Each structure stands twice: as structure tokens, then as C-alpha cells.
Amino acid sequence: MRTRNVIAVVALAVLGTGGWTYASTAAKGLKADDLVEIQQLYSKYNWTIDAGDSEGYASTFTPDGVFNANVGHDAIVKFADGFRAGLGSHVR
User: DSSP assignment, residue 30?
Assistant: First the structure.
């Protein structure tokens, strides 16, 4: 039983490291400006939905973007409006 647990832990460590290595290798191909732009988009995505800016939130997607079952700009705006209404103004 102990041997099986050790093998499982080693396997998880190897798999976890492999994912991290892939992510860091993929990021090496990006320029600093690209990484900053991605971080800014991520920030805008979160700040706009928290602030109730549904148009701003939808602008973080392409016009034919998909979020869960919401396809396209208008559906994403509708989702963001409903999200804000459901949680109230205390979100942030």
C-alpha cells in the first residue's frame, strides 16, 4: 500500500511539473509587450464585470465570442447584466 502511494505522489509530481514546464516554455516565445497586453485584458475582463460595465465586459471578447452558452456580443452583454443583477452592487 505504501509503495502504491509513493508511486502516485511521484506520478502527480511529474505530471504537475510537465504542465508547468509547458506553460513556462510557451511564455518564453512571447515578448514582454505581449504578456503585458494579456495581463491588461485579463484585468479589464474582471474589472468591467465587477463594475457592472456589460458593454466593456463584452468588448473583451471577439464579436463572435463565446462564454459558456452565451454566443456573440449581445448574448454576452445580457449575461453580464444578469450576473451583476444577481449578485448586487457589492461585487468586487
Answer: S
Q: Letter for the amino acid at 47?
A: W
Q: Which DSSP state fits 61?
A: S
Q: Where does the pLDDT of residue 35 fall: very low under 50, low under 70, confident under 90, or very high at 90 and above?
A: very high
By the 8 A CB rule, do 67 and 76 touch? yes
Q: pTM above 0.70?
A: no
Cell numbers representing residue 64 in the block: 463572435
Residues 92 and 69: beta-carbon distance below 8 Å: no
- For residue 72, give the H/E element and its range: none
Helix (H) or strand (E) holding 63: none
At residue 91, what are phi and psi to the nearest 5 degrees? -75, 135
Q: Is residue 59 packed enough to be buried (19+ CB in 10 Å), middle (13-18) or exposed (0-12)?
A: middle
